Amino acid sequence: MTVGQITPLVVHASGHGYEVLDGFKRLRAARSLKWSCLWVQVMRLGAVQAKLHLCQSNRAGGLTEIEEAWVVRSLYREDGLTQPEIGRLMARNKSWVNRRLLLAEALGDELQVDLRIGLISATTARERCRLPRDNQQEVATTVKQRGLTTRQTQTLVEAWLAAPTESARESLLTTVRGTQEGKEAKRPRTSGEWMLYDAEELRRRCGRLHGRLVAQPPTRGDGDVITGLRTLRPALCGLLEALSQTLPKGQVA
Known about the structure:
There is one protein chain. It is built from 13 helices and three strands; from the N terminus they run ββαβαααααααααααα. The protein has a three-stranded mixed β-sheet. The protein has two domains: 1-44, no CATH class; 47-183, Orthogonal Bundle (Arc Repressor Mutant, subunit A). Helix content is 64%, strand content 6%. The chain has helices spanning 24-32, 47-57, 65-78, 83-89, 94-106, 109-116, 122-128, 133-146, 150-162, 166-184, 191-215, 223-230, 232-246, and strands spanning 9-14, 17-22, 40-43. By secondary structure, it is mostly helical. Helix 4 packs across helix 5.
């Protein structure tokens, strides 16, 4: 970074220290550069005003849909504001507030991570909110395997909800998956196709793990988690070494 810090971080003084309201990317960049100090603007705000400022200052794209949803849920559940009040304070209509609240409270944890890192859209996520949490991931897997559009996802969700029994729902998902699986069964996958499949699966899972680590890094008390994460290092190092020998020079980075 040749210019240095141009604008200050905006932080809120809370009971536990300071919470960043604007400047998350600047803070992340400063940490990667191992800077020892930063230019900071401290704001003395109440809890509601701090949350509103967080959304307003990041309205241009700093927050994802699910992060906005978490703020809305906090205003609704913790601060006791009504949905019309939240909409008025955030310059949004009640329908927008209701949709964000639905994402925060009805969407399963794994799908919230997928939404945060961009693996699914907010529109398709809202369709899956109509399902019980225990069944969302199963339907999501079918949607991904078939590459369903938002409209097709809506049709699948409606058919699943209309199914009278659990066996009928299982039969529905098996039929939808089997349409694609039957086509693939005509010919075994080539080595290259398996590589593409594994690469896409690895990219998806790495993105999900990255999102979890950023959202809630493990602490010293999470010994099993840290041990499990540590086992990734040799596997990833080996993969990078193989890529460096396979890809054209300069493409590994």
